[in-house]
Amino acid sequence: MVERAEDALRHLGIAGDLRVRHHGELARVELPPESIAEWLAPDRVRELTGAVRSVGFTRVAVDLAGFRSGSLNVLTGVVEAEA
Predict the structure, then answer these.
(1) Contact residues for 36 (Cβ-Cβ < 8 A; gap 6+)
(2) What is the pTM of this model?
(3) Region class of 15: left (phi > 0), else alpha (psi between -120 and 50), else beta
């Protein structure tokens, strides 16, 4: 599902580093930081969420921090932070 969602977003024209993180029924989308504002416009966010939902996710969230490597492993509640 993740790969299909990322392909769907690339088909919309999103270039650069992007990731879709799988959290059960929720897809957390990490976009290139410089493109976040564009994809939060009402028409664009409908395109983005529609593309991600079309592959089977029921909920979509755009991560306002943007793309960053390893972010799946540092979210509170996903894994415990090292002391």
Answers:
(1) 62, 64, 66
(2) 0.80
(3) beta
